[in-house]
Amino acid sequence: MxxxxxxxxxxxxxxxxxxxxxxxxNTLVEPVHLLRELxxxxxxxxxxxxxxxxxxxxxxxxxxxxxIKLLPTVTGSGAGSGxxxxxx
Length: 88
What we know:
This protein has 88 residues and is mostly helical. It contains five helices and no strands. The protein has helices spanning 8-24, 31-40, 46-52, 57-69, 83-86.
């Protein structure tokens, strides 16, 4: 994936997802990490789109958090990006 082709906001969200996965000790950066960061991002496109669709943002955030808590974790330097985001 060529990160330079992404918008600044997309790059920020992706980096935040990687950072969050590492902070939590997750073995991989999963799409749900990116979803969580997009839901928390200020000034991005996701929140306005969800508002136009009358989507329950609080529920989405809660479900994303629940899904992340179920992911495997490691301690040390084993966490990082893996196949799940590499396919994106």
